[in-house]
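Need tokens for this chain, all 485 residues.
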Amino acid sequence: MNTIKDRAAVERFAMDALPLAENWTPGTPVCTGAAFAGLLKALGKNVINPALADLLYFLAATPTDKKEQADRREAIYNARIRAEGAETSLELTSAIMADHNTQSAAPPGTLKQAAVDALRRLCPAEPVQVPNLAALSLSNVQTAAVEWLVPGLLPRGELSVLGADGGTGKGLWQAQLIAHVTTGNSNNFFQNPLQNPCNVLIFSGEDDPARVLRPRLLAAGADMSKAFVVTSDGFFRDNRHLLAMDSEEFSAIIRNTAPDMVVIDPYQSFLNMDIKMAERNQMRGTTTPFRAVLRETNAAGLLVAHSNKKGAVAGRQRLADSSDLWDASRCVIMMGRDKLTKQVYVSNEKNSYAAECKTTLFTIEGATVEGVKTAVAVYQGTTDKKDYDFIMAKAARPEGSKADAKEAICSILNESQSGSMESEKLRLAVMEEAGCSEATFRRARTDLKDKGTIYTKQIPQKNGVNKWYVFYRGETDEHLPSESL
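Here are the structure tokens for all 485 residues:
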């Protein structure tokens, strides 16, 4: 709730309404209609914050006048539509209406305690008493060497970033990293063993622990007893509000787990919903609490970021919307795919405390773990080429062949959690991934349908329109082309 439009106005409302809400009985007003309208305006886009839903619908239900109740509920609905930008989306409007009707039907007595709790959170915090404000003299600071989790790559107590396009294979490289950290053993990707196995905490915003994370990590050789996970949707299910990386809850999870490495994948899933990633001050305000708890616990932090879709840009410019991540991080790793060799590259683009590591190359092969199909990264060596070299080579590549398009179709479908995609979206994704023409895409799709690798089916949509979807059956005698990210 740190992006409220007019915090001072919201705090004034909360202070006035809190005693009335605490002592509310049916027939007792909590606020006037004008005050309620002012609250909606002051909240701005925070009217869609799940943590405030019970408060708003409680306030709408407390007037004794039925028309006033209806007017307040209509005002909530209209504010939600504007905040969600749903004016032109029939599907989103219908979803909001269904939820609105459910919330409106709740008796105010069942919402009272949640409303009181929300008002308490909205009230201004008591001023912190700071007895002494003084700078630290460097004469009292003891010189210390950098402490590494992964020597030469990931420092403890610091923030690092991994950036890559979706579907590149960043989850598979992470699996090799986590296997190295949780076992302490060397592998082709990390050839120097660690002194001791370490714990890893994963904040997952996209990957299911049972269907994706566990099979992927097992295939890489990780120790499951040292890998811990918190999912964004699981936290929301249990707590009815989103988990943000600058919250005290987020820091408490890290302290209670006591990991040696914290992975946030992708970090965009753990931002406050009104954060503008392109604004450096907002991003710095979000990453600073995370960096503070990393230093407190001496853990290495790895933020995983989706890279942007701009053409012919490399390094800093590839980090989606926020170059501040580059500046705040001590290590930056960028990944991509070499279209000419089909290999994935992992390029260390920034290293504040050591020389930049050589670029790692790997391919992707299928694997089956505990009866579940997954994929694994296969080491192919190193190169001195960097992200810029691969990106510029991409811009000059020839048009993708039918074989490229077939591989891209299988890869993209296999990487989706449902194993399917709307036909038109798949066409655009494959043409972008493989660099092929529409005609080449259609020939590749036909070949895969004839082989039985994929099939198509019409699926009814909520608006009554049927759309074609493409479903992935999987390979019968070949390795999987990719993994689910």
